Amino acid sequence: MKLKGIVIVSSKVFGEIFILDKIEDFKNDIEIRDVENIFQSYIDYLLEEINGMDEKYREYVNFYVNILRSKSFIQMVKNKDKNLLKSISLAIDEITNKFNLENEHYKDISTELKFFKNELLDFIAGKLEKENFKEGTILVAKNLTIRQSLKAIKSNIKGVILETNALTSHPILILKDKGIPTVISIENAVEIAKNYKYALIDNDEVEFTNEKIEITEKSVYIPFENDYFKTKDGIPIKIQINIDFPEEIEKVRNFDIGLFRTEYLYLNGIISKNEQKDIYEEISHKVYPKILTIRLFDLGGDKVPISIENPDVRGIRYLLYYNRELLNKQISAIKLANKLKNIKVLIPMVSSIEEVIEIKKLLDDIEIGIMIETPASALITDRFKKIVHFFSLGTNDLSQYTLAINRSDISFQQFHPSIFRLIYYSFSKSKPKPFSVCGDMGSNDIGLIALISFGIRIFSIPISYLNRAKEIIEKLDKKVLSEISRKIMTAYREEEIVKCLRFYLDSL
Ligand code: PEP
Ligand code: MG
């Protein structure tokens, strides 16, 4: 059976199917009477997480440890439902409702409890999955969490087929950056896959089959001579690379690292100054004489839930106003690592001048840039221009915060006219400072064309998109680009923009 989806990492791979069922499907795997053991493993996990951290974290964690050890809570969970996850959810909701009073302090507790519930359920779902995904298989699932994406990579999964169409959600970006052949938006993939043994991924097409197929698998990466690709009429487009994990550097030669998402180090427990310094220094040596752009931890929000006390604070504001200690550790590590002077620093989620000034005070001789990923920063790009060395456009967050919609939502419109207006405005106000794109729009066929048509000339993309980017750029020329930008800027709806860009893409 053949189906077409949206390709995230283009490749050709064949393998045995490994199905990752939805959380609800695990209901029979675990007896409700095991609840104490499960809570205990979550307690162990929490205690390990805060090991060596500030005393205040211990207090927060103790609050949850006490709930999880409380006999009445355990009884409540046992009485709610046969499905373990459902009964935990109902039990925590019941407690949460008790705190949902018109009192600020209680309100905070109820917000914390909601956050706690999601973390706990996510943890248990992860535990319930078979310890590792089967190596060398093709993973089929409805959707993945960040943890599951990381696990897929660790388990050397050959390819991924998903039902979701959340192009720019973090779990999918991780697969893209890692170059795992991935196709999304395959309706009913999980149900269909249950009838088959093997799957073939070929670019945007998926074939489920019971017969073995012999194929020549395509490599997703070939080395390049230069760090720019030229359009048909010779305009050079500078290319940099996005990485999420230090080991990705092994495949990168001759390119600047335009974005190193350090928050995944944090997620893997690498937070001490020395551990960070060693990693930054090693990468900076490996890319030298090219540049390593380290983005400060972008924690919070939908990415890495950190702060039980402030689940809604994100990026630079979290570091500056809620966790100076973590910020100081990272800054010191960067300074110590910058022996070859090829490190730059990128600040995430900036919205105000003060935030940048604060960071500048800490980083005297290192060039700093800011992410343009909040509408606020896009609208005052000219103000930032005076104090930063460069800009990096984060189209993923810029879109979700402009449209007030979660980036994993199915109705997320990355090509909405408002996004293009903001980008165009910000870019035009950024000159003469370098302005690059590290968001996913720059590694999406039609997005890349649109952004080049606006005059943007620097793109930081995943390694897995290099071949495709080259192919597209080499077909573009000034005439077609100016037609495209005019059409985008006069459009009323996303649909028109996408249609127009697809038309040009197909006619190249
Ligand atoms: C973005 O928001 O576009 C971006 C590059 O940052 P991240 O995807 O890591 O949030
Ligand atoms: Mg972002």
Which secondary structure elements does this structure contain, and how are they paired or packed?
Elements (H helix, E strand, L loop, with lengths): L1 E3 L1 E4 L2 E9 L14 H15 L5 H15 L1 H10 L3 H16 L4 H25 L9 E4 L4 H9 L4 E4 L7 H9 L3 E3 L4 H5 L4 E5 L2 E5 L18 E3 L5 E8 L12 E6 L1 H5 L5 H15 L4 E4 L19 H7 L2 H14 L5 E5 L5 H10 L5 E5 L2 H5 L1 H5 L4 E4 L1 H9 L13 H14 L4 E3 L7 H9 L4 E4 L4 H8 L4 H13 L3 H14 L1
Helix pairs in contact: 1-2, 3-4, 4-5, 6-7, 10-12, 11-12, 18-20, 18-21, 20-21
This protein binds phosphoenolpyruvate (PEP) and magnesium ion.
The site of phosphoenolpyruvate has 10 residues, from α16.
State the total count of DSSP E strands.
17
How much is the average pLDDT? 87
Q: Tally the helices: what do you get?
A: 21
How many strands, what sense, and barrel or not for the largest sheet? 8 strands, mixed
Q: Largest sheet, order of strands side by side?
A: 1-8-7-3-4-5-6-2
Shape: globular
Radius of gyration: 24 Å
Fraction in beta strands: 15-25%
| Separation, N- and C-terminal Cα atoms | 31 Å
Structural class: alpha/beta
**Share of helix among residues?**
40-55%
| Poorly predicted segments | 23-28
